[in-house]
Design a protein that fits this description.
Layout: E1 7-9, E2 19-31, E3 34-43, E4 49-59, H1 65-72, H2 76-83, H3 86-91, E5 95-97, E6 116-121, H4 131-139, H5 143-151, E7 155-157, E8 169-174
Antiparallel strand pairs: 1-2, 1-5, 2-3, 3-4, 6-8, 7-8
Helix pairs in contact: 4-5
Bound molecules: zinc ion.
């Protein structure tokens, strides 16, 4: 689950930094029947402001009133949603840095004593993480130990556990 907004990876024109922070502020610009909306992000080093396009030159009537309200209210939840929208990230040619912006909630320690456990992992945000890292953290193992469990067929899943995932998956661990 996310603990704060991820940082936006983008080159700052004012300094050498490449990390920007969204604070939930938006800029909306209406001109005649057209409307633009941007999510503002601040350079983490010098504070310079950059804009990520939410939409540009949209027909005012085509924008949902509920979305307009949230833009005008500088809704941090909306900023979080937009930063998880692959279309917004592609449009602005930015990637995200989730380091330190999420945590693993195991929901207790019952799973630690069992010989066989079926675990389902639910992502509260599209955080790209290595399943190996989640399993290691959730079971108090090293990543090398998790790698051995996979090699020995004791940790199995329908998804490839060695890559990165951004969505829900399940696995079975036998010890
Ligand atoms: Zn800067």
């Amino acid at each position: 689950m996310p603990t704060r907004l991820p940082l936006v990876l983008r080159r700052c024109h004012a300094c050498a930094s490449d990390h920007f922070r969204a604070n939930g502020k938006f800029r909306v610009n209406a001109h005649h029947k057209l409307i633009d909306a941007w999510l503002l992000v601040l350079c983490t080093s010098c504070g310079d402001t950059a804009k990520l396009t939410v939409f540009e030159r949209a027909q005012v009537r085509s924008v949902r009133p509920e979305l307009l309200d949230r833009l005008h209210a500088n809704d941090v939840g909306l900023a979080a949603e937009l930063l998880q929208d692959p279309v917004v990230l592609r449009r602005n040619r930015v990637a995200l840095d989730w380091d330190g912006a999420w945590r693993l909630d195991t929901g207790g320690s019952d799973h630690l004593d069992r010989e066989v456990v079926d675990i389902s992992v639910r992502f509260a945000a599209r955080v790209p993480v290595r399943p190996v890292r989640l399993v290691a953290e959730g079971f108090g193992l090293s990543r090398a130990e998790v790698g051995r469990l996979i090699a020995d067929g004791k940790l199995v899943s329908a998804v490839r556990l060695s890559g990165k995932l951004t969505g829900d998956f399940t696995f079975t661990l036998k010890r």
